[in-house]
Design brief:
six-stranded antiparallel sheet, 18% helix, alpha+beta, 6 domains, nine-stranded antiparallel sheet, single chain, 10 helices, disordered N terminus
C-alpha cells in the first residue's frame, strides 16, 4: 500500500540545494512579483500620459511615442510577459476548468506581440494636396509651363522675344454652369489674368472637368464672345487645368534640414537626429531676447548635421545645430556699437485697463521718430543747453516779428487761425502789415535727402502789395513767393529772399509726450494743449505717471545704436497651446569657407517647392540663405522628414456636407467635409475614392484620413477649398492586436460564465456519488493524497 509523504518528507523536498536558476524560476513563478511589475507598468504609463512634464524635461526630451519605446518600458513589458508565461505554465494546470485563464494570458501575450509589431513599424504624417495646376502652352514654347492654381501665383513666359505674364486672379469651387447640357451643375473655376506682350490684358476662365467651356473675359467690358465675336482673344494660347499630384508626406515628430542651390527646384534632405523638442537650448542669453520676468536657462547644444546620402549643395561645408527654441519670433533689437550717432529709445505705455504697448523710436528716422498715432516723439539735442528750446506746448506756433516796430508775436496755429485763402487777414498791431495762415505742410520729404521739412504757407499784406511766404521750420529755407501761386502752395513762381521788414518762424506741432536725448542723458516732457505738464530727467527703467491709471516707462536708450534681428523667446503663459512646433527655430552654423556664418532658421511645416505653395501665407515658407566661398548661394529650410508615398495622390474634388442653408462661414453649419482622391497606379489615375471625417481609406499599404481643409474666407464662401490636408499612416499588426483582444475577451467569458457552470455541475456530480455511498478504495485515496502532496513539492510558493 502506498504511504503518503510525511511532513518530514516535504521538508526534505524543500531542503534540496537551490541554484541561481531555481531562485530565478521561483521569482518568475511568484504571483506577487507579477503584480508588482503590473503596478510599476501602470505607474510608468501614467507618468508618460498624465504627467508629460516628466518626459519633456530637458534631461529626457521625449515624445509620448519615444517614452513608450524607451528601454525601461520594454524591460517591464518583457518581464511581465515572462512572469505571466511562467506562472501560467507552473501554477495553473492545463485542465478544462482553467481554459479561461490560459486563454486570457495567451490573448495578452498575443496583444503584446502585435503591439510591438504595430508601434515598431508605425509611420504617421501628413501632406497637403492641392486641387489643380494651370498648364500654359503656346507655339514656340519648348515645353509647357505650369503654375499652381491658387490665388496669387504668377508665371512669366518668354516666347521668342515676347514676354507673357500669367497670374491666378481667383478661384471658385462652386461656379454654376449655365449651358443647357450641364445646367444646374457646378464646377471648380480658375480665373487666370493674362497680360500679353501686346494688346490689353484679359482673363481666361477655366473649369475643371469642362474644358469645352473655356472662355475669355475682357475686364470692364464683358465676355470676349460679345466684344470680339469669339470665345478666346488669342486662340493660339492654350491654358488648361491638370491635377497637382502629391508624391511625398512629412513624418510627425521628426526633424530635417533641406538644402539646395538658389534656383534649383529639388531639395536634398538631411535628417537631424537627437535634437530637442520641448525646451529652449542656447549657450548664451545674449543670443536671444527674453521677457525680464522669464529668464532663460543656458544649455549647450552641438549637433552635426551630416550631408544627404546623395550629396547636396553644402556637402563640403560643415553644418551644425547649436541652438533650439521651442516658441520664438524674430524681432528687431538694438545694441550699442555703431560708429556713427544713431539715437534710439524704447518706451512702453502702461494702462490699468489695457495691455501695455511698446514702441521703438529712432531720432534721425522721420518715419520712426514719432509713434502711437503721433502722441510720442523722440528728438536728439546736440547740447544739454538746447533743452531750453523745447516747445512749451504741443500746438504748432507761428512767430511773427517786426524789428523796426519792436513787435514780437507767438501765435498758436489753431483752427481759427489757419483760415485758408478765403479767410480774413489778421493785422499786426502797431505796424502796416497783416497776415493770414493759408495751410500747413508738416514733415515733407526733401528730394535726395533723408530728412524732412515743415512749412506754413502765409499770405502777407504790405503797404506795397501782397505776397505769399513759405515759412519753413528751417530759417534758411524760408522764401517769399511773388506772382501767381497755387492757393495751397504746391507750385510757386518767382521765389525770393524773405522781406527783411517782417520776420517769421514756424514750429510744427509736436507730440504730447516728448523724449529729448542729449550727450548728458534723457529728458521727458509732457505738453498739454495749453502748456507744459511734466518736465523731468529720465533714465532706463523709470516709470512716469501721466495721469491716474496711465504711465510711461523707459525700456532702453542707445545713442550709437546698431539694429540686429534676434529671436524673442515668448514666455510660456503667452504661448498658444495649439501652436505645436510651428514657431520653433534652430540656430544653424555653416562653415562657408569664408568663415562660420550663423543664422536662426525658422520651422516650416512642409518643405515646399517655392513660395507659390505657401498660398498667401497659409503655410510657412521661409528659407535662409548662405553664401559659400566659391560665390554659390545656398538656401536651407528647417522642417520634418519627408518620405515618398507608394502612390501619387491627386485631389479630384472637395465637398462640404452642410446643414440646411449651406456654408455660412461658421463651423456649426458643416456636418462633414470630404475629399475625392485619385491614386496613380499602373500608369493611370484610379477612379475617385472618397475620404471623409472619421472615414479613412487604405491604399497601397497606407491609410489616408482628413486632417485639415482650405476654409473659405467669411467674406467669400465660394472661394477657398483649393487644397485638402491628408493624414497618412500605416496600421501593421492591427489584426494581431485584434486577435489578442478577442482571445482575452473569450477567456474572460469562459472564466466568468462557463467555468462556474462546469464547477457547479462537478459539485452536483460529487454530491450524487456521495449520496449513493460509493466506497472509495484505499489505493485511490492514497493516490489522491500522493498527487496533492506531489503538487505541493513541485509548485512551492
Amino acid at each position: 500500500m502506498i504511504q503518503p509523504i510525511s511532513g518530514n518528507g516535504r521538508e526534505l523536498a524543500r531542503g534540496r540545494s537551490r541554484g541561481p536558476f531555481d531562485y530565478v524560476l521561483r521569482l518568475f513563478s511568484s504571483v506577487w512579483f507579477g503584480v508588482a511589475l503590473a503596478v510599476l507598468l501602470f505607474v510608468y504609463c501614467s507618468i508618460g500620459s498624465a504627467i508629460p512634464q516628466v518626459r519633456q524635461h530637458a534631461s529626457l526630451e521625449m515624445t509620448e511615442f519615444q517614452w513608450f519605446h524607451w528601454w525601461p518600458f520594454n524591460v517591464l513589458v518583457v518581464l511581465l510577459c515572462v512572469t505571466l508565461v511562467t506562472v501560467t505554465v507552473r501554477r495553473i494546470p492545463l485542465r478544462l476548468v482553467n481554459a479561461g485563464v490560459w486563454t486570457i494570458h495567451s490573448g495578452i501575450i498575443l496583444l503584446v506581440v502585435g503591439s510591438y509589431y504595430y508601434f515598431g513599424t508605425k509611420v504617421e504624417g501628413d501632406a497637403p494636396v492641392f486641387r489643380r495646376q494651370v498648364v500654359i502652352e503656346r507655339p514656340g514654347m519648348a515645353t509647357a509651363e505650369r503654375m499652381l492654381a491658387v490665388p496669387g501665383t504668377e508665371a512669366r513666359v518668354t516666347v521668342g522675344s515676347d514676354a507673357w505674364r500669367f497670374a491666378v486672379a481667383s478661384t471658385n469651387h462652386e461656379w454654376p454652369i449655365l449651358s443647357e447640357e450641364h445646367k444646374g451643375q457646378t464646377a471648380f473655376a480658375v480665373n487666370v489674368q493674362v497680360t500679353p506682350p501686346n494688346g490689353e490684358p484679359f482673363i481666361r476662365q477655366l473649369l475643371a472637368g469642362y474644358p469645352q467651356y473655356t472662355e475669355d473675359v475682357l475686364p470692364g467690358k464683358g465676355r470676349a464672345i460679345k466684344i470680339v465675336g469669339k470665345k478666346l482673344v488669342d486662340e493660339e494660347l492654350k491654358l488648361s487645368l491638370d491635377y497637382e499630384p502629391q508624391t511625398h508626406f512629412h513624418v510627425m515628430d521628426t526633424w530635417a534640414l533641406y538644402v539646395r542651390k538658389v534656383g534649383d527646384t529639388q531639395w536634398a534632405q538631411r535628417p537631424i537626429e537627437g535634437m530637442p523638442r520641448y525646451n529652449d537650448w542656447v549657450s548664451s542669453r545674449d543670443q536671444v531676447a527674453t521677457d525680464p520676468h522669464f529668464p532663460i536657462v543656458p544649455r549647450t547644444l552641438d549637433l552635426t548635421v551630416p550631408p544627404a546620402p546623395e550629396g547636396d549643395a553644402l556637402s563640403t561645408a560643415p553644418v551644425r545645430v547649436t541652438g533650439y527654441l521651442r516658441y520664438a519670433r524674430m524681432q528687431r533689437h538694438w545694441r550699442e556699437g555703431s560708429a556713427r550717432l544713431n539715437p534710439v529709445v524704447a518706451v512702453s505705455l502702461l494702462s490699468d485697463h489695457a495691455p501695455p504697448e511698446s514702441f521703438e523710436l529712432v531720432a534721425f528716422d522721420p518715419a520712426n521718430s514719432v509713434e502711437a498715432n503721433g502722441n510720442i516723439q523722440f528728438v536728439w539735442l546736440d547740447e544739454s543747453t538746447d533743452l531750453a528750446e523745447l516747445p512749451p506746448d504741443s500746438r504748432p506756433v507761428l512767430s511773427v516779428a517786426v524789428p523796426e516796430k519792436k513787435v514780437l508775436l507767438e501765435v498758436p496755429l489753431t483752427r481759427e487761425v489757419v483760415v485758408g485763402t478765403e479767410g480774413p487777414f489778421r493785422p499786426i498791431e502797431g505796424t502796416d502789415f497783416a497776415y493770414r495762415v493759408v495751410n500747413l505742410h508738416d514733415n515733407l520729404v526733401l528730394p535726395n535727402r533723408s530728412d524732412t521739412v515743415s512749412i506754413a504757407m502765409v499770405e502777407i499784406k504790405t503797404p506795397e502789395g501782397q505776397f505769399t511766404r513759405m515759412v519753413a521750420d528751417r530759417a534758411e529755407m524760408t522764401r517769399d513767393m511773388h506772382g501767381d501761386a497755387d492757393p495751397h502752395g504746391a507750385a510757386m513762381k518767382k521765389p525770393a529772399e524773405a522781406d527783411p521788414r517782417i520776420h517769421m518762424t514756424y514750429r510744427p506741432a509736436t507730440a504730447p509726450l516728448l523724449f529729448a536725448a542729449h550727450p548728458g542723458g534723457l529728458q521727458f516732457v509732457f505738453n498739454g494743449p495749453s502748456g507744459r505738464v511734466i518736465d523731468r530727467a529720465a533714465a532706463v527703467g523709470d516709470v512716469v505717471e501721466l495721469m491716474p491709471g496711465i504711465r510711461v516707462r523707459v525700456d532702453g536708450l542707445w545713442t550709437r545704436a546698431v539694429m540686429e534681428m534676434k529671436p524673442y523667446v515668448v514666455p510660456p503663459p503667452k504661448r498658444d497651446r495649439n501652436a505645436g512646433e510651428s514657431l520653433a527655430m534652430i540656430r544653424l552654423e555653416v562653415d562657408t569657407g569664408r568663415g562660420v556664418e550663423t543664422e536662426w532658421v525658422p520651422f516650416n511645416q512642409y518643405a515646399l517647392p517655392n513660395m507659390d505653395y505657401a498660398y498667401g501665407g497659409r503655410f510657412n515658407y521661409s528659407p535662409v540663405r548662405f553664401r559659400l566661398a566659391d560665390g554659390a548661394n545656398v538656401e536651407v529650410v528647417f522642417s520634418r522628414e519627408q518620405r515618398p508615398l507608394p502612390n501619387a495622390i491627386a485631389l479630384d474634388e472637395f465637398k462640404l456636407d452642410t446643414h440646411i442653408g449651406g456654408y455660412t462661414g461658421s463651423a456649426s453649419t458643416i456636418r462633414n467635409y470630404m475629399s475625392q482622391l485619385r491614386f496613380w497606379d499602373g500608369g493611370r489615375w484610379t477612379e475617385p475614392v472618397t475620404i471623409a471625417v472619421n472615414h479613412p481609406t487604405e491604399y497601397g499599404g497606407y491609410w489616408y484620413f482628413q486632417s485639415m481643409w482650405d476654409k473659405p474666407p467669411n467674406s467669400d464662401p465660394s472661394a477657398g477649398m483649393n487644397y485638402t490636408g491628408l493624414g497618412v499612416g500605416n496600421r501593421r499588426g492591427v489584426y494581431v492586436q485584434l486577435a489578442g483582444c478577442c482571445l482575452a475577451v473569450a477567456g474572460m467569458i469562459f472564466a466568468f460564465y462557463v467555468k462556474p457552470v462546469i464547477k457547479r455541475r462537478r459539485a452536483e456530480q460529487s454530491r450524487a456519488r456521495h449520496q449513493r455511498d460509493e466506497p472509495e478504495s484505499v489505493e485511490r485515496e492514497a493516490a489522491r493524497v500522493w498527487d496533492r502532496d506531489a503538487d505541493a513539492v513541485r509548485l512551492p510558493r
